[in-house]
What does this fold into?
Amino acid sequence: MPPLRLLKQSDLLQKSSNTMEVFQTSRDRSVVVEASAGTGKTFALEELVLELALVERIPLQKILLVTFTEKATQELRTRLRSRLREIVDAAQSGKAWLGQEGSGSRWEIDAPRLEQLKAALLDFDAVPIYTIHGFCNRLLREFAFENRLLFDQQQANTRELMENRFRLFLRSRVLPPDSPHAPLMRLFLVHAEGNLETLKSELLQLMPQQGRLIPEWPPFSDVMQTFQKLLEDLRNLDQRWRKNPGNHPMREAFWLMNLHGSSEKGILSSLDRIIEVLGTEDLSTEECFLHLILSQPQKVVRPRCTKNMKDGKQYASPEDLPEAEKQWMEALGKIEGFLANNELLVEKPEQLKKLLKAWLIRELLPPLREDLERMKLEEGVYDFDDMLRIVEENLIPVQASGGENPLSPLTDAVRSQYEVAIVDEFQDTDPRQWAIFNHLFLKSTFHRLIVIGDPKQAIYGFRGAEVLTYLDARDSMLSRRDAKRLNLQRNFRSSEGLLDGLNRIFQSPGWFKNPAGMTYSDVLCGNPEIKLIDPLENRRPIHFFEIQPRFRIARNQLEKMKQKPSNPFPDEMMAALKRAAGTNCRSEVDFLKAVSRETGPELCGKYRNDLLNTFLDSNRKKSEQELAETIAQEIKGLLERKVLWHDGREKQGSPLKEHHICVLFRKTSEGEILSKALSRNGIAYAFYKQRGLFQTREAREILDLLNAVVQEDQPQRIRLALLSRFFGIPLEETASALTTQPKLIFHFRRWKQMAMDGETGRLFQDLLEQTRVMERELFLAPNERGVTNISQILEYLQQRIREHGLSLAEALRHLQRLIEDKSAAEENSDLLRLESEENAVQLMTMHSSKGLEFPVVFIFGGFSGDPPSEHYRYHDEHGQRVIRLFGRGVPEAFDEETEAERQRLLYVALTRAGGRLYLPYVNFLSGNKPLRWMKYKPCCQQELMPSLDPIIEEIHLQNEDPSPSSTRDAFPFSSSTVIVSDTTQNRVADQKQENSDTELFQGIEEELENLMKRSGIPHQQGESREDFIHALKKKRRGFVVTSFSRLQKEREHGRRSNPGRDSNFTLPHFEARAEDDFEETREADEPESINAESPASSKQADPSMLKLPGGASTGNFLHEILERIDYAQVLGSTSTEEWAQNSGVRQQLTRIAEKHGFSEESLKEASSLVWHTLTRSIRVGESSSLKLAECEKRIHEMKFYFPLPDSRMPFTLLGTEDSRSLWDGEGWRVKSGFLNGSIDLVFEWEGRVYLLDWKSNLLENYSKQRLAEAVCEHYLMQLQIYALATVRWLKLHDEEAYKKRFGGILYVFLRGMKDVDAFHFERPSWTKLKAYESELERPRRSYPAAISA
It folds into this structure.
């Protein structure tokens, strides 16, 4: 049989005009391949493997392939297996050539090579293709003896270990009085935030990180010893003066010093605090230390003085002071110098809390690490981050003598197993990973190391990956004699025009300046057939959306300008501007014209630049919304005008579809803005990795369920699983379900046996069949997303178990880690797949887009900066990693590294496009060059704009003076302006609103038709589809709205903002949240101020108003006190003062007041209101009274779900004259048919359950009549829903049970409880309650006239 020939196609192996250097297997043993985005890196890696296998005859099992994500590992394994299968099939069929024929370098598959490939295919599962952590995990398992580990050592979760160990560590090592850490911990608890959860969280975050911690504070005990000596010296000098009565001499000296006017108050205040500290004898050394830091001694030691002596001043500077005062200043200067040298000075009092926490973290981190490591060793476990450390320590053992390390047993074992290591995505490596590969392969003369990466795509610095490590590794590898550096310069992803434009952008000054060693070389087009054909002429490969400026003259702004001495405008101009107040313009020209009409052309021209600068409305949010709307309309246009996409592989192009389009943004919040714009325009979209697959509710429920399977002997585990959607058993029935449904226990035992037998695939299949969760979720929500998530998570677990040989318990620990660690979840490329999303525009963050490609890409957002960091991570001047825990300002090196990473992130985003790239652009304000039309902080767009400025100028020049068509065709840039009028936005929103409800209902109807054909969902004989869906909707759980008062407030807001609107209204859209997103800020009980229409409010305000102002903040403050205090302590006190002065109560109340920003006086008033409220007798019903403090059985903030029968209809209840007049014509939209609420207090008294709602309203009086009016006017709907929700919760199915068990509803108006019985009690009759319910459940088949209109 003649040999099969294959032409080598990668530029790494085939010489061409573009590639002079190629990989030579006989000589190159240390190879660095740098591959720009889209240059076929994975294909090149496949060919490298074939070259090593076919030329050097290296078995595939001896070639270690390492990449950094599970997805890349799976893709590489699939592609390599397919390539080998294709070659073997072609060779066996007798073909002479496979693929393209040619005279270049090629492989020949003869009989021996064919047998080699067939053997490799038969044992392909043994081919070592791993992630870096998968590789290390395999080393720990296979070479346990060489690693000096127990054979049954298992992977554990650091977070779980930390939960169990942290408090024990504090009790045993930190809090004992003789502990060296106790004084610092005491200061942290008393004078800082004292939040142990925050402390634990930050320690856990720093635990695996490597780097030098700064400031390098000495131990706290050593600092105290030195400080005590310095303090004694200063006190000895100070005490001499205090023997004599009268003013302190230093005060007199500073009063006579020629201090600078603006600094004098601060200097004298600091001096007073220092003198007070020195005169207080009962302060401990630690407290003196703290108070001296707070006094800011640097202001006193180096006071700011003026040059010209003022009248009455005697000393020009501290040097002129008398000798005794000088000695005092010198002693204070020593303390200040000591604090400064140790970086212990603060500029603001609030910095002291950060200082104490940072110091405590620095002291506790080393012993906590030791403690945790010792516990892991004792229990025989290791965590995810330990893998790399253990492997490194056993590969490169530390020699006490400092001599050269002998080869460790693990090194010998690994080197004997592998001959070559190929590491993909090497720019994402960290120092420890590089140390492992360096030691195993680069330092061996008999092994090869090939790394492939692109430093321009190093965007995971926040995970520990460092581009500096890559650059250092590259230098080390290229220093060898047998080294070679290769480049992939041909791009097979993008069109020629797009690449020309990108080359121009990235060649602009400022790109890839840091760190040194980063370069950009022009990328060539590898496939000229790639193109996007658009009939619209003004759309080139790179198109800019030019964001337009807004100018606004506001009356309040003019009033403020009058009072400023820096006002640039004369009185004549200000008078004209006042006449122009209210002007809103969308361009510089229109604004200047509008102003000129009032001021005259001459005056307007004179102050032109000042006018533009002063009245520019640079609000970013408005511009972002307009940009989002413009992108949505552009996408709509692309889909409507039948754009063709040629991917270069097919002869004919295909119409551009939704899934060909991707929009990238920096933050998820920007994606939310965009998704709303797409929805308004009727464009389907899919949010890629929204929250992450492992941060979904489905992931947590699967974890609970499988934990119950593994630990089926623990009833609490099973009860938790029963609450999930797999079973959907209500909370109050979970305890009895285990006895009333014996099959449940049987199933859990059977599933556990499957897990023990290693039949996890069968286990997962049986779980789905027995629980029928897929059918229920698909129908009841309809929750297609949830069904997809469940399927994918189980798929992922099964794959993980199969590939890594894990038990189910080990897989669940891995799942737990993914759920708790979002960054780890992203490493596994957890794409939330959905079949219907194949025809949807893809929305994703720039980080998530790495490795993906799309014909059309829009860049949206990136205008907001990163959130402030608690700890700054960067490299010092020696290239060493530094973690700064505390300090002034932002380190310059941190800024430089952050800016460089933002550039690299932009590079990744811009190189995702194949045919067209859309970019936003913000121009300069005329005559104010540094100022752009829109504000943005250090962010991605800040890095991009300077390189676009010359391109935009060229576009404008071409538009003014059109070039020949040949020149225009070669120019890859075009632009259009972003202007979206409010009218257009409203029209699009209205049009979308009219269609959305009908489409949703049709989708449910179609799904119902399909599901009722199956046997999985039982229904009664002859039951109609409408009745069936109506019955099931009452039982379903899904998305919910979390606050009723928000709905009421939105209704009131809509009425105020549109006072004259008629029946042509639109349904307001309320944001829905998943059930796991219930942590909501409490809604206000009242407006921010007293109702201006109230006649009493203008005559006599409540006295408490002076101490507790109206508004949401006061309501939140009072609610939190009532939720957190111990009612028994209130009951045991005889007065407000006695209760509030209890040390524990006092500390708790103070913390709540500080959290909400209330003063001591406000706290006293709030404490009085709370005490009187809880101790006043309240009459409920005809014969029963109670004190709320006496209620022992109570639930605070009880959440509940409330089903709506038809979420597309206006929400109405009885008890009102007319539902339409109540809501002023507004209906409510609730996704998936549920409202969710939170009841302030549910308590049981004398066998009955009562509901209570706290109200902090300011009323003109608190008479019974006024309170009844307030409840009827504002809270009637809330009262009715509360009653219905509670009756359903308690399962009160008849009138007798209702009368026996339900007590009623209390509205307690806190501000009036000091003086009167300021509460309203109501207990609806059973007849009225059923009327509410029947009205809610009454089927509706048509829309009211107002809506259909």
Notes: The two ends are 79 Å apart (CA to CA).
